[in-house]
Amino acid sequence: MGHSLFCFLGLFSLNTILCGNAEGEKVKATVKANTEIMPAGGSVTLTCDVNHFADLEYDWFRQTSKNSEKTTVAGESDRVLVTSEAGFYTCRGRVKDSDPIIIHETVPIKPTLTLQPSWTQIYSGETVTVRCEIQGGEGAQWTYEWRRNKLNTPPTSNEYRIIRATKSDSGGYSCRGRRDYFLTEWSDIITLTVSYKPKAKLRADNTAFPVGGSVTLTCSVNPSSSSGWKYYWYIEDSGGLVSPRDAVFLSNGQIRVSQGGRYWCKGGRGQPVYYTEDSESVRIDTIVSNRPVVTLYPNWSEIYRGETITVRCEIHGGDTEWDYEWETNSTIKPPNQTEYRIRSASSSNSGNYRCKGRMKSSQHKTTEWSDSVTLTVSNKPRPVLTVSPSWLSPGASVTLNCEVEHPSAGWSFYWYKAVPDLSEKTSSYELLPDGSGTAQDSYIIHGQTHTAGYVCRAGRGDPEYHTDHSQPKFVWSADVHSAASLTVSPDRVQHFTSDSVSLTCEGNFTEWRVRKFSEDGRLYSDCRRMTGSTCNIYTSKSDTAVYWCESGSGEFSSAVNITVQNDGNGPILVSPVHPVTEGASVS
Ligand SMILES: *[C@@H]1O[C@H](CO)[C@@H](O)[C@H](O)[C@H]1NC(C)=O
Ligand SMILES: *[C@@H]1O[C@H](CO)[C@@H](O)[C@H](O)[C@H]1NC(C)=O
Ligand SMILES: *[C@@H]1O[C@H](CO)[C@@H](O)[C@H](O)[C@H]1NC(C)=O
Ligand SMILES: *[C@@H]1O[C@H](CO)[C@@H](O)[C@H](O)[C@H]1NC(C)=O
Ligand SMILES: *[C@@H]1O[C@H](CO)[C@@H](O)[C@H](O)[C@H]1NC(C)=O
């Protein structure tokens, strides 16, 4: 059963504590002895008992007679007293003193926080000291308290030293001083940012200069808000630090060099010096006067997919040996050689090309870049053939013209006669006499009397590259006295729409197809309904065309015009499709 105890301070003595339990019962100490009679020279063990109180301090008193004054047994405060002195003993239990509670007083002083060195932007590995200064408190023995995110074991000195900072040292720092029960205010917060070790950045206003010139190099450390840097410059080959003999040191972070070489830099600050990573290196070249030229072999800047071409870098003057470099925005990059041979061009070879030379004997001496040359790789072209005139007139010659889409050079031309091939639904081509590889893009045929079809194509280069064949083009003959002819029923040039017209191929041949060359320049091979050698059509506007027959053995018939006009567009002239011979009657 628990007892609630209450105690109160005695009126006259701090050490006299009266306690009671909840029922108000006085608590009284009792003293017990292991014996009440002590043999001479012996001792007795006294025990002081205060109900329910375990952890008390005790006072012991002795009287020489019942009424004599109590004297304190000096130095005894345990519950058990061993004594070898007889007398009247009493004891008293006493609650222990509390731990002290400190009541501080704030003094109106705000310490100043300083950084040594003074950079708030620092880098992992740097060392920095945060110092707490209390003005007006000089001479006093302050101890210091530090505050910071996650700073768990603060030092008590006025310096907080961060050695080889890491990212986790980032944060806001502040301090205050403490002396006895006096406390200063907290200082303002200084925010430290710790970044990863930076890499110096080297910028060159130019990477090459003519003999006698110079370039300016700039070294910097990011972020640009960081300060206190000194810059160190290095050059390859001579191997070490750039000395004032090799360069003009401009303001901090800039030098002007007039010697080719590979340069790099780094930054350093602090004591001991903290260094950044080295910058990337840049190559600075001296430009010599030799001029490179990009040349194409063959010299066609417009080429076609699959063609072969060589792009060459030529440097004239002197017998210097060169290494070559190319610059191009094409997808495929040429190797760094004098000559780039493209065996089968593709659109990935399209682009601007320029080159420069680098002296084999002196690697930091180069030529200027050449002018750039544009190479355009186009799809395989299909030339366009024109035939003039379209209708044969006796005695006139026929002129063929073959044109390759993109203007370009070096073509020779091939001229073919189309030979009807009914099974293939196309035609095969037969070279015309002297029609192979002509330099001219036109070809003249004399004495042509029958309807005929022609095709051309072009080729160039070595190995020769050929374009596709052109679409076939025709020259038509109206002469009915040829081996094959076409008759139209009803026999008239003009027809209304939805007329029933039959076209019949005539001649001593077994197989036929009717061909149609429409107003819009399209060539048709199929008659929708062919019965034997007759093609029946129900006319519509799109049937306005030139018609002729082709036999299975390659014969062309004479050709006819048929025009179809809408019913509403007035009358039609009824005239025969074939030219009439002199003296014949026509209705
Ligand atoms: C090809 O060479 C000739 C003469 O060498 C030159 O006049 C012409 O400009 C060159 N064409 C191209 C496209 O380089
Ligand atoms: C050619 O050399 C330049 C400069 O040294 C280099 O940047 C480039 O990658 C090289 N090109 C090839 C294809 O090796
Ligand atoms: C190369 O650059 C030129 C000029 O800037 C541009 O006209 C051309 O389209 C570019 N070619 C390619 C393949 O990027
Ligand atoms: C067909 O029409 C064209 C022009 O439309 C003409 O030059 C040609 O002589 C005509 N042919 C016949 C056979 O009527
Ligand atoms: C048609 O051809 C056959 C065999 O080639 C020949 O016997 C016949 O005489 C020819 N007829 C005409 C009208 O040419």
UniProtKB/TrEMBL annotation:
A GO molecular-function annotation: transmembrane signaling receptor activity
Mention any one GO cellular component term assigned to this protein in its UniProt record.
external side of plasma membrane
Fetch the InterPro entries from UniProt: Ig-like_dom, Ig-like_dom_sf, Ig-like_fold, Ig_Fc_receptor, Ig_sub, Ig_sub2
List UniProt keywords, sorted A-Z: Disulfide bond, Signal
Q: Which Gene Ontology terms describe the biological processes this protein takes part in?
A: cell surface receptor signaling pathway; immune response
Q: Which residues form the Ig-like domain?
A: 25-92, 111-195, 198-265, 292-376, 381-458
Q: Which domain of life is it from?
A: Eukaryota
Q: Which residues form the signal peptide?
A: 1-24
Give the protein name, as stated in the record.
Ig-like domain-containing protein
Please tell me the species this chain comes from.
Oreochromis aureus (Israeli tilapia)
Upper lineage ranks?
Answer: Eukaryota, Metazoa, Chordata, Craniata, Vertebrata
